[in-house]
Every structure is written in structure tokens, then in C-alpha cells.
User: What shape does this take?
Amino acid sequence: MTQDRRSIPIVGARPGSGENGSGARTAGGPYGRERSGAAADITLVNMNLLYIRLGDGIDHEAHPPLGLLYLTSVLEQQGFCVDLVDYQILPRSESHADPFEIDTALAFIGRTAEVVGFSCMANLLPFTLLVAQRLKQRHPEKKILLGGVGPFGVESLILERFAWIDGIVRGEAETTLPLLLKTQFDPDRLCRVPGFFHRHIDKTVHYTGKPHRIGNLDTLPLPAYHRLDMAAYDAFGILSSRGCPYECRFCSVAPVWNRRTTYRSHDHIISEIRLLHETYGVKTVLFQDEFFYTSEAKILDFCDRLEASGLGVRWKCYGRVNLVSERAMRRMAQTGCVQLRFGIESGSDEVLKKVVKGFVFQDALEAVTLALGIFESVETFFIWGFPFEDMTEFYQTALQMARFRQMGVTVLPSLFSMLPQTDIYRDYRKGDYGGTLSLVPELVPVYVVTGHEIVDTWHVVPEQYRPYYEFIGAHADIFPGFFLFNYETNVLPKYQALREMGFA
Assistant: This one.
């Protein structure tokens, strides 16, 4: 349902759960983290960041890094000492620092263990690689690893081209990383660790094969919230599942999980909500996974259990327009749901068919109209700039976006991004669309390259960031998501139309 929403150019408002509800502060070291540094078995660094400069102000929304928090809990459970660094906290602690200066990042990360694992999404993959390069130059003895969805699909290319990266974890690191640390990077033992890309002694890249999925997510410990200063975060997410079974051809997330979904039980989910609410004072949570609403029966069961818990929290989630029912939505609202989000993607039925959304726009119109009468807020996501989207189809989308906006719906349009694991990008590589990809720095917001954006001059590339664009341009096959498809005939006229309609 998504194309990695945080990894793409956003035109207009940005998604976010928007409410801090934490009244508690946990113990921790500088920047709200307990640092074990060089004494640890591994330093885990979250490089995902939502940071926007608005003139003299800053719009920065920090979310606890759930992936690394789950991983930290598993590693600690198995006896490893973890040094956890969340780069999101830098703007809060050093308000005048530029988060996207490499030396600033290294100063914030500080002393590290001998093994350092960076986690990032696609938009911050270039910056993360450059930070890792500088770290390796200063400490060539350290092992530098990558993980997260950012390097997915281009792991071999990264290892072939960037000697400073020692290995890349694909899939559920809770399975791979404990085994990896136990090998102490002995080449003979590395080959027996599933889910790991690394170099042989002869410098060729080897992938050890897919690990078994974690079938029952209840077997994972709760995220290591105790390692964070929870008062430093604005919004609090929860994952109820991993993976999405739908075949959306633009999606970069479902392929990571082989379009297979695993779940947590409702009681396990509610235990996490209880921890967040009673220990950290969190009042609002967002279900971040986009397959939370799987059926009416399951959502009704969750609502009944949540109500019986007596927690009284507010919550937000994603839904699918062809699955939601009025009965379920009303029950959701009764038990504290204040916002429902829909990935609609297009106002053109022809485009919806081509991207295999599984519904027509009339389904979306009916579901959104119904939801507006039930919830405090409804958000809708649209994608523009598909390589097969003609101007008539684009205007159908733009007009439907305008219609929703007039109805009071929050509309969040995004420029299509050809991330390497998407079906559409693979079709492009086969020559199906006949167009070209171009890197046009003036049309790619700084946010997409560095994670932050100077909104009033977003189309002007500051000189200090030009080397990042040059790095991207030199490795188009690793970073295709930054390149625009037929920008003169496809992207530019559509962008100009969105500006005229007030969406940009």
C-alpha cells in the first residue's frame, strides 16, 4: 500500500501521528540514551530523520525507532551489550547543528563498539553511506554493517562498490544479527548465518540465503523503550504485523516481506499499549503497519479487548477502502480511534488497475465519505508521476484530491519513486516504458537527499549538499528512487499543475 512513505518527495503536508502524549522522562545519558560505547558488543545507529526547516523555524517529528528497539531487546535477551544511538534526537539537543553535515553526525554518534550497524530508509541511504565511509576512514578496524529497508535490493551493488561497508543484513535482523555477532566475523562461520551479504576472501559478494521468517511475533520481547528518553519523542508507533499480502506494483515495502504477513496477538499488542501508557504516559498511539485492518472480525475483536483493558488511549491506524465497514469503523471510534488513513494512490480507475490496487475510485469515495462522519480526522495518500500516467489520468487524480480537500480530508500527495525493489522499476529496467530517468537536483527536494528541507527555497540546492547529489548521480543503479522519469514531459507539467492547485 505504500512506496516507503518516508523515502519519497512529498508535495504538501506530511504524514505524522502529530501528538506527543508522553509525560514521563526516562533515565539516560547525553541525548537521552544510555551509552556503553566502546564497551558494547555492537553500536546500533538509527539514521532515519524527519526534519524540515521552515524559514527560521524547524518542524521536526521524532518517532521511537521500533525496528532497532525490537532488535536491541532480542540482543539484550541473548546477553549482548548494545549501544543504541538515535540520530533523530540531535535537533532537540543541538538546535544550531546541521544534522546533515557528516562531521556533525560522527560527533553525535561518538565512541562506538567495534561493530557498528546503521539502519536507514531509502532517502537517507546516500548520507548514511557517506557517514559510514568517514567513520571507516577514522577507524579502519571497525566492522560497518547496514540494515533496514534502505539497502534492500541493492546489497550486492553496495558491497561491490563501497569497500567501507563490511556486510548488509536483509530481513529480520532479530534472527540474523545474534548469530552474526557470535561468529566474530570468522569467514568460515559467516557463510552459515542466513540473511547476510558479505565479501569472500576473493572479494566476491556472497548472500547466505533467506532466513526463516518469525512466524509468531508474540515470541519477540517488547521494544526496548527503557533505552530511550521517551520525553524526546513526539509520536509513538506500534507494529501489529509485518508484511502486506497485496500486489501493489509501486510498493517498496511488501516485497521486503515477500508479500507474506505475520502477526502479533491482540493481547500482546495491548500489553505494549499498557507499557507505553502506564510507564511513559503516552496518550496516543499510531499503528504504523498498513495491514492492521485485515478484516471486520479481527478489528472488532481488537476493539473489544482494548475496551476491556480500560486503558482509554487514543489511537490511529491505516485502513484499506475495500475492507473497512461502517460497523467496524463506528466501533473503532467508540474505543478511541481518532484517525483513519487510506492509501488511495490515484483518482483514475485505469491507473488503479495498472498498479493492482484491487479497487476502483468509487470504493475510495464511499469509504472516505463514511469515515469522515465517524472519525476526527481522515488522511488520504495519493501518488502522482507514474511512468504510465497520462495527463488526463493525472488530472483525474488532482481533481479528486481537490474534492477530498474541500470535504475536509487531509490529502498527502507524493511523487512516484522508482525504488529498486518495486515491480514498476523492474518493468522499467526491462524497457516496458521506453522513457529515461534523470537526476534533476532542482526538482528533487533537499528533504529527499538529506532528510530535511528548506521549504521556502526547496528547489535551490545549497552548495554544501551538492556533493550528496553528485554521489547519487554517480551511482544511479543503487539510488534509482532519486531519479525522475521523463521529467520534462511527465514530472514538470504535473508539478506545475499541483502548484497551481495549491498542493505544492
Q: What stands out?
A: The longest helix spans residues 391-407. The longest strand covers residues 337-345. Residues 30-207 form a domain with the Rossmann fold fold (CATH 3.40.50.2300).
